[in-house]
Amino acid sequence: MSHAHSHSGHHSAAAHAHGTPAHDGHAPHGHADESGHSGHDHRADDIGEILDLDAELLAEHTAALIDWLPLTAAPREIVDLGCGTGAGAFALLDRFPEARVTAVDSSAAHLAQLRSTACVRGIDHRVRTLQADLDAAAWPDLGAPDLVWASASMHHMADPARALRAVHDSLAPGGLFAVVELAGFPRFLPPDAPAQAPGLEERLHAATEGFHAEHVPHRGADWGTMLAAAGFTVEGERTLSVRIGHSPTVGCYALAGLARMRGTLAPELAPADLAALDRLLDPSAPDGILHRDDLTVRTERTVWAARRV
Predict the structure, then answer these.
(1) Which pTM does this prediction carry?
(2) How far apart are CA 80 and CA 308, in angstroms?
(3) How far apart are CA 49 and CA 246, in angstroms?
(4) CATH says 17-307 is which class?
(5) What is the pLDDT of residues 199-223, one digit of tens each?
(6) 30 three-class SS
(7) Where are the domains of the chain?
């Protein structure tokens, strides 16, 4: 296996706010309160916003992941499995100008946004969208792609071993399957922040562990072993460290992600921590997320490249 580390933006780093997929074929696991809000004007359930921020911040890293893939030839038929609003699909289309992409997701809204973007970019003739529940008994017809890309989606499958076998059987002989998975929801704040509740972000992450164990049991799975068991030859594995410095976009990204976490974790948080989180999420608070200049996006991603032989 090859292992490398880089420091740059990454494809869909923060849309996994509390276990929620950045772009996959499944419904989000996070929940807002009954109003659908996080307690402020920011919508905790606006995954589309987080996906757009992902695409803006992390395009460079997505391109680096694609360039790393051990492709034997430029793919002509590509599937983006769990495509969301299309950050991966468009990066693949940019990298392979002769290729067509089948974008698969369960969200009609995400697919509609992807189609709209493709039209604006003048490449709608290169994009096919396919709405499908990847946990349904009938696997969608993916054709015979040369490359299947699945970023932050496989661990949300109810039966990932079945999904891996289905991808294997769909691929053209010699085709490649790229699985990109998350180390976890990114960190944004310094360890001693905020002043009224130092270490708050780590406590938020600790509070998610039980949720992940119940709702996302395949998070952190040994995908290399699972890919081999599904019949693939695993040709490479790469872990990438992500660190993106402060910018207004990083502030918006942190606000969207932490608001989504708040929607799920509020009943589990100590009153002081909840009050501190609400202050961070308040766009009018002088020490709120949008007014801090000490934010960074910090996480890790691992990509596996597996071939059907």
Answers:
(1) 0.82
(2) 17
(3) 18
(4) alpha beta
(5) 999 999 988 876 666 666 557 678 9
(6) coil
(7) 17-307
